[in-house]
Design goal:
228 residues, mainly beta, 5-stranded antiparallel beta sheet, 17 strands, 45% strand, elongated
């Protein structure tokens, strides 16, 4: 671990693999080439927390860590220059979400949807500018509560606001099959009541199909049984 990695957090990366890196252009003066690298061992320069409330992609509102260093092609650390981190959502322009007055940065940002990210290093003195880019998928947040009593099921809210269908899947052996769909109301809320078996358990999962703005949204697996 480099001496400048004092704010690194031990978490698991699940952002998409780096997309084609943005091109690095060396000036005519043959300044020393540089590259963007992750400042945390075993991580990229942007990565989500290992904590998961839903399976699959990071969830809307999750923290994405920015851990960025600049080095030469030979691996020597670069300290001078500035960094700019930008995010582009589908159909939107690039937006600056973090900056640093030095060639390293340790901050965080929130996951708000499927996005492209890039970091731009300005260059300094004998060091050439450079840049790097990645893409990341994000799913909507399902805030769910179980319902028990005479009728078992789930009620919840989708975040951010969503007016559409929530698909209810039932497990049959090793496969999941569509059981029914429910629609959210004007407040992005919904409820679904589920049958119980005479014995054993029925297993359920809720999903919202993917879109340009969000990846497929998946709930944890729930079950119903007699006495639930």
């Amino acid at each position: 671990m480099r001496l400048r990695r004092i704010l690194a957090a031990a978490v698991v990366t699940s952002l998409a693999a780096p997309a084609a890196l943005l091109t690095t252009t060396a000036p005519a003066s043959a300044a020393t080439a540089t590259r963007i690298v992750g400042g945390t061992d075993g991580k990229g320069w942007i990565y989500p927390s290992s904590y998961r409330t839903q399976p699959g992609a990071p969830v809307y509102g999750d923290t994405l860590s920015l851990s960025i260093n600049v080095e030469t092609e030979s691996g020597a650390a670069v300290y001078d220059g500035t960094l700019t981190v930008q995010r582009m959502l589908p159909g939107k322009d690039w937006k600056t979400i973090a900056t640093s007055s030095s060639a390293y940065l340790y901050e965080s940002t929130k996951a708000v949807g499927n996005a492209s990210y890039r970091v731009l290093y300005s260059g300094s003195g004998d060091y050439a500018p450079s840049s790097a880019g990645v893409t990341g998928k994000v799913q909507r947040k399902l805030d769910l509560q179980s319902v028990s009593g005479k009728r078992a099921g789930l009620k919840g809210k989708v975040v951010p606001t969503f007016h559409g269908k929530v698909v209810v899947l039932k497990k049959h052996g090793k496969k999941w099959k569509k059981f029914k769909t429910v629609r959210t109301n004007k407040k992005s809320r919904f409820a679904v009541y589920l049958p119980t078996p005479r014995k054993g358990k029925f297993f359920w999962q809720l999903q919202i199909p993917s879109s340009k703005a969000f990846a497929t949204t998946k709930s944890r697996v729930y079950y119903t049984k007699r006495g639930y």
